[in-house]
Design goal:
Number of helices: 1
Protein name: Spore coat protein GerQ
Shape: globular
Pfam families: Spore_GerQ (PF09671)
CATH architecture of one domain: Roll
Keywords: Capsid protein, Virion
Strand content: 25-35%
CATH topology of one domain: SH3 type barrels
Structural class: mainly beta
InterPro entries: Spore_coat_GerQ
Helix content: under 10%
Strand order of the largest sheet: 4-3-2-1-5
Order of helices and strands: HEEEEE
Distance between the termini: 34 Å
């Protein structure tokens, strides 16, 4: 419409720990697998949903975090020693009965960094 001022989009600077590359989204290190790696060895309750599964649609796993990758989580049941490899696609959320680590060490050693988008 004539006479209507154009609105400029609001620019928000995200808080990141990675380098800024002009014209690209910033490199982000706050991926769930990095948070899980920071909490390796802690007891966690993992809530999952398996769509279209008639036996069990939702399942809760409780165990010690052993490892986490981009697409999976490995936990072990401290009572039975049984290990579970859980694909991240089924993950809903995770709870901890203790405080979790979330501050990244300087330089992000051992953390996954994906290329800018």
């Amino acid at each position: 419409m004539a006479g209507t001022p154009q609105q400029m989009p609001m620019q928000v600077s995200p808080a990141t720990s990675g380098p800024q590359i002009p014209g690209m989204l910033p490199v982000e290190q706050s991926y769930i697998e990095n948070i899980l790696r920071l909490n390796k060895g802690k007891l966690a309750t993992v809530y999952t949903t398996f769509e279209n599964n008639k036996e069990w649609n939702a399942k809760i796993f409780k165990g010690i975090i052993e490892a986490a990758g981009r697409d999976h989580l490995i936990i072990s049941d401290p009572q039975t020693g049984k290990r579970y490899l859980i694909p991240m696609v089924y993950l809903d959320y995770i709870t901890f009965d203790e405080e979790i680590e979330y501050e990244y060490p300087f330089g992000g050693t051992g953390l996954t960094t994906y290329s800018p988008r």
